[in-house]
Amino acid sequence: MTSDFMTLALATMIAESVARLQAWSTHATLDGSRTIRIVGMAMVELGVQHLVTTGLAMAALRWKGWYPKVGSGKQGVDGRQDYFA
Q1: Contact 39/17 with Cβ under 8 angstroms?
Q2: How many Cβ atoms sit within 10 Å of the Cβ of residue 34?
Q3: What is the dihedral sign for C-alpha 70, 73, 78, 79?
């Protein structure tokens, strides 16, 4: 699973960087430092987007009772049984 995630993350980063570099190259010439800066900005943006999306998804799952609450005292019960009984 980790290998699939890393492959998808790398492919997404490459695609986003290529799209940004193509858009930027129509306006100005690219040198090495500018290219590295654009790729770095794409990596930071994708990382922040991933963290925010994951956090919001976990909050929504916990709010709906599909994710176990920490310290609830119920081991192995996470709410999914209510929906798939």
Answers
A1: yes
A2: 14
A3: negative
What pLDDT digit, counting tens, does each position of 6-49 carry?
888 788 888 888 888 787 776 667 778 888 888 888 888 888 88
Contacts of 46 (CB under 8 A, 6+ apart): 9, 12, 13, 16
Half-sphere exposure (CA, 13 Å, Cβ side) for 6? 3
Residue 73 phi/psi, 5-degree rounding, is: 85, -10
Confidence of residue 76 (pLDDT cuts 50, 70, 90): low
* φ, ψ for residue 84, nearest 5 deg: -120, 35
Measure CA 1 to chain center. Answer: 15
Contact 68, 55 (CB under 8 A): no
Q: Tokens 């929906």 correspond to what residue?
A: 83
